[in-house]
Please model this.
Amino acid sequence: MPERTVVVASAHGLHARPAALFTQAAAKAGVPVQLTKNGRSVNAASILGVISLGIDHGDEVLLAVDGEGAEDVLDELSGLLTTDHDA
Amino acid sequence: MTSLTGVGIGRSLVVGPVLRMPDRLPEPATLPSTIGPDGERERVTTALAATAEDIRSRGEKAGGKAQEVLEAQALMAEDPTLRSDIDVRVDNGATADRAVFEAFAGFRDMLLGIGGYMAERATDLDDVSQRVVARLSGVAAPGVPESDTPFVLVARDLAPADTALLDLQKVLAVLTSEGGPTSHTAILAREKSIPAIVGISGILDMADGTVVIADASTGAVTVDPSEEELRRAAGETAARAQRSAVPVGPGALADGTPIPLLANLGSAEGVEGAVAAGAEGVGLFRTEFLFLDAKTAPSVAQQYGHYAKLLRGFPGRKVVVRVLDAGADKPLSFLNDAPEENPALGLRGLRALRATEQILRDQLTALARAAGETDADLWVMAPMVSTVEETRYFVALARELGLKTAGVMVEVPSAALLADRVLAEADFASIGTNDLTQYTLAADRLLGSVASFQDPWHPAVLRLVREVGRAGAALGKPVGICGEAAADPLLAVVLVGLGATTLSMSPSALGDVRAELLQHTREQAVAFADAALTAEDGATARAAVRALLPQHV
Model:
């Protein structure tokens, strides 16, 4: 399964608005996306799952995408994670 | 007609039909499902989708920041992880109502467990849960009712989440059965200039659509008023509008005694609004916003930027900055987040800063630097000071770091009783009436069941204010008021009579207080204070002072 490790750029981590933007994009991808931090994996299309990881600015997370167009989805989602939406 | 009474916030008089805010729903029963998992799943699907759609359409109406919050709530209703959790519970025989309730509660507890910013999202999740459960059980969704025409909102009490959604164009006034003068409802009402009357018993029995006259200046609610009463109310509204149309200018009594009117601010964003409302400076700048979302204390450079922005807004004017006021009730991981049985009596305010002195040093250093580069007259003060020794400690540290004027907040009765000794060390005192009331009457200001004790009109509180006023006069040191009490126009006059030399409040309250001060001389203010001091409780103190007012026709 294609994967990528990224460092989260948002100043306040993946809370509220950045989390909403990210889960919406993950849901739109149409293929299963998994987000992992410190060995705990959640469905990236689940806002509750994503915020439950308590992801902070500078945290390292792993994105894993299964299915068609996985590389494109990885590009888009890692782009979102490495942009500072709180700036 | 009947008449009900509570504690009024503000001076306005409004007439309108009431709409009741539904109470929180009871917890759904744990009865087994009678229609089976498939039927329950279908009910869940319909209710979740309809709730998400409803939240989203409210978001589109609201726009801006509210829309972002509501969009996140809609996503919670559609959350696939939550849905799987609900389905497992339904498959095990639960009703849709119970399964939804339990699944949301599980996620809420998890968010609370993470703490900090995440814990605040738990309120959003609760709101979504209530909406879905309401839809499943076919009752009105809790929260602020919607209406196309203006109405008077009736509620048990408002939660911060409700107040964020209040449509100010529609809500004429807020009437609650619970809550005291410092409850969320009251604070919100003052901030947004919505008239409110809190703590009205019997108000919840009113049917939607009943017309009332609500007079915040007396706390009286007239139910089903007569034609004659409506006519009188209209006349009174016009007269008050005229009276409060006092031109913006320096605060003063009728005899010309200047009483500078200052603003309470929680961030540098409010500077322009405060200046427009005629604030002559800042009497309380709360610095918690710089720290609350942070995992580590902000650097000197980060703090400096905010302080400089604030100070530039008030060239040549006084700006009183309170150093970080945190404790177990507002836990910060880098300060004090050890759980305490009684946070209000724990390691908070100056006590917590002293235990982690570097944070205090950094904050004072950033403030001194900002003061050096602007023309504002910066004063700094410490919160929750209870001894003379603490006063000496804070003043010495502030001087060491280059600050010219250092004082203390008087919120603890011990500091008020020893005000002569405290003010011998400090350059000024600022009385925080909310905490002073809480500590004097031993009543947690956040606890609804003891809200009736939280009355700054209480003569025990006023006698402590008098101690500070006297000490200030004897030593020639300024005594300010920066609690909500200063925003109550009549009480503001009493406080001046007790020796307050400046008053600081939410900018929205400045106009009413300025107008009231101009009606009375210093001699009258002292007479009001004497009447209040000899009363036996807050209500009789208020009544005693009202009895001295010239009768309005």
Summary: Chain B touches chain A through 20 residues (CB under 8 Å). Chain B has three domains: 2-21+144-243, 36-137, 246-547.
